[in-house]
Amino acid sequence: YDVKRAGLGFGFYDAGNDPHTPRRLRLMTELRRGLEKEELRLHYQPKVDLASGHVTGVEALVRWQHPKHGLLYPDEFLPMASRTGLINPLTDWVLQAALRQCMDWRAQGMRVRIAVNVDAMAFQQADLAERIFALLTRTGAPAECLEIEITENLLTGDLDKCSAVLARLADRGITIAIDDYGTGYSSLAYLKQLSLHTLKIDKSFVMDMCHDENDAVIVRSTVDLAHNLGYTVVAEGVEDAEILQLLEILGCDSAQGYHIARPMEPDALAAWLSQRPAG
Ligand code: C2E
Ligand code: MG
Ligand code: MG
Ligand code: MG
């Protein structure tokens, strides 16, 4: 049971957050089957370099094509999967599907790095690095194909353990990004202790940054902090041209958001990429 998610334990009942509602419990049983029946899908959303416009990579975002409920988004099933062991086979499935896709695209002459979100719970598994290396071998994908996005909250756990896993992944050539940066509870100490390459500023700071001075200050400070530590910095939630322009002025390296492109099915992404100037 995740105490942090439940606040201090005095919270009000919130059916939206309760993993034990009948519908959600049923969904978990169905997800186990859905994994076997290959009902999960990955959509891909590009990230672009602000200075050149080149695509720096794509992020894989999981969806579940449910036979009755249609296309389900991660918010509907990931929190529960994270509290049950299901997150581990799901993570393996996502990693394998992303690496296979990377190889398919390479066979078509498209080289693009794929970022995969790895849940905090999956990171508690001591063999995570080995499983990732085994998937690289099995799919034949080079480590440079893969970026791992981890949310800042996971770093409130066992930092030494996490640090060791991240170092092994980074040594192998896998890029590591901190996702939803700025929303976690962790101290800044981890920034110098972990093998990181990228900070990804959470969309809650980015979406209103043109109208909210505080958000703009947070984004600017994060860009400077990241650069001073030698990391690149990405902004998510770029919904209009004004935000894109301000990010460029603030020196942010790359951007991701609906204004650039929505998450897309693999074929749509390939078509979108082919319209872009080569990078
Ligand atoms: P995230 O990794 O921070 O991904 C960004 C989310 O913001 C995605 O939602 C994306 O569709 C959405 N987004 C992208 N651009 C914009 C924009 O301009 N405006 C707004 N308002 N939203 C935008 P999605 O696909 O629903 O995923 C939600 C979260 O679920 C992700 O947040 C990530 O934490 C998690 N997730 C997604 N796929 C996976 C996965 O395969 N494994 C794990 N462990 N987590 C995943
Ligand atoms: Mg992400
Ligand atoms: Mg994010
Ligand atoms: Mg986010």
Description:
It is a single chain. The chain is of the alpha/beta class. The chain is built from 11 helices and 9 strands. An 8-stranded mixed barrel has the order 1-2-4-5-6-7-8-9, surrounded by 5 helices. α1 packs across α2, α3 packs parallel to α5 and α5 runs parallel beside α6. 33% of the residues are buried. Ligand C2E binds next to β2, α2, β4 and β6.
For the structure shown, list the relevant keywords.
9 strands; eight-stranded mixed barrel; 279 residues; binds ligand C2E; alpha/beta; disordered N terminus; Diguanylate cyclase DosC; binds magnesium ion
Number of helices: 11
Question: How many DSSP E strands?
Answer: 9
N-to-C CA distance: 46 Å
Oligomer: single chain
Which class best fits the helix and strand makeup? alpha/beta
Compounds present? Answer: ligand C2E, magnesium ion
Q: Based on CA inertia axes, which overall geometry fits?
A: globular
Protein name: Diguanylate cyclase DosC
Domain EAL: 24-277
Quick summary:
The protein is an alpha/beta fold and 279 residues long.
